[in-house]
Amino acid sequence: MSPLKTALKRGALLAAANWQVALIQSIADSLFKLLIAVPVVGGVFLVVLVIGAEPQGILALEWREILTTILAALMSQPAVLTAFLLALAVVVLGGSLFLFLVKAGTVATLVAADRRAPGIEQPPLHLSTMARAGAFAVDDFIASSARLFPRYAGLGMLLLALYVISAVGFVAAATLTARTVGLGAAATLTAPFVAWITFVNLLYVLAQVVIAADDCGPTAAIRRVAVFLRADVRGVAAVFGVVLAVVVLGTGVSIVAMAALSLIGFVPFFGLAVVPLQLAAWLCRAVVFQYIDLTAVGAYLHRYRGTPDRRSRVDVAVGPPSGDAAWTRLAGSGS
User: Fold this and answer.
1) 40: number of CA atoms within 13 Å, CB side?
2) CA-to-CA distance for 184 and 177, rounded, in angstroms?
3) Could you tell me which of 11, 101, 9, 5 has the C-alpha nearest to residue 300?
4) Cis-peptide, bond into residue 118, ω within 30° of zero
5) Phi, psi of 110 (to 5 degrees)
6) C-alpha distances in angstroms, 297 versus 8, 162, 270?
7) Residues 254-279: pLDDT tens digits?
């Protein structure tokens, strides 16, 4: 079995054995989106009250278009725009902290499952093997979330700061390019920006894995991720490429499925079933995509545990972050 197939299979089995965390993660992500909707809907009413626009026309748009429309409509009202942005920032920050808390317990559960299930990816696969890989327990999940939350929150704040800096830089570069060269040249900056955000998200996921696996802080995790990528950049890139292809394929399938469900609305009597079916499809999509995300986490964890630099040391998966000096020496020596 190829190393790529082994990593992906192990990650998929670990995620399946701990299916509870996929449900928890999907619920947390859905709650975050609902929280974002609160200030957005409030912004619609602000636009209606201040500018006199029609709420039906605004709510009929996609949520990204709704947000853009609200910002554009409130540009002439600085005080109202400031209040809307502050409300949105509070919700995004609070919701992000909630996601960091849940993610800490999720990744810690997969790390514990990885320790308990050696060779789960090797055939034959038995139910007893899957049961041994199940590491989810409510008390352990809560304890891991509380223990790792400060580190995940610090790492998450760094991610949000990079998002803001990248977005400001992209808008400034696009505006300058549009004024000097043209809109076509400015549009070409979108692809590098998306690639950069994707790379930042990959580093963020790897840092989350390292924090939970080695019980270290964000700074040490970033250093260890750099060493890990130097040792296994091809393996990480292969896992990332497969997961990205699956996500793109799943997104296309979900779009087609939602479009097919919308056709039922034109059928007499069956039209009443559109909303329940769309809700079920939305929930199913959320769980499936979270399962894919956890599969990637398990695959990265397997690759990380298998790097020569990490095998050459005593396993520090459990214990205080006292191995930082050893990793610093490894990073400095280029090993």
Assistant:
1) 18
2) 9
3) 11
4) no
5) -65, -35
6) 9, 22, 40
7) 777 777 766 666 655 555 556 677 77
Strands, E, within the chain: which ranges? none
User: What gap in Å lies between CA 76 and CA 187, rounded to an integer?
Assistant: 26
Positive or negative, the CA dihedral 316, 322, 323, 327 is positive
Query: Could you tell me if 207 and 222 are in contact, meaning their C-beta atoms sit under 8 angstroms apart?
Result: yes
Q: Residue 229: which of 209, 204, 196, 206 has the closest Cα?
A: 206
| Residue environment code for 262-278, b if the CB has 16+ CB neighbours within 10 A, otherwise e | eeeeeeeeeeeebeebb
Give, in order, the Cα–Cα distances in Å from 312 to each of 44, 86, 173, 307.
58, 49, 45, 9
pLDDT digits (tens, 9 = 90+) for 89-115: 888 899 999 999 999 999 999 999 998
127, containing H or E segment? helix 127-133
pTM: predicted TM-score of the whole model, two decimal places: 0.80
**Rg over CA atoms, the chain:** 23
DSSP output for 184-231: HHHHTTHHHHHHHHHHHHHHHHHHHHHHHHHT--HHHHHHHHHHHHHH
pLDDT tens digits along 148-158? 999 999 999 99
**Alpha carbons 226 and 221: distance in angstroms, whole number:** 9
Distance CA 303, CA 6 (A): 10
Of 136, 109, 125, the closest CA to residue 13 belongs to: 125
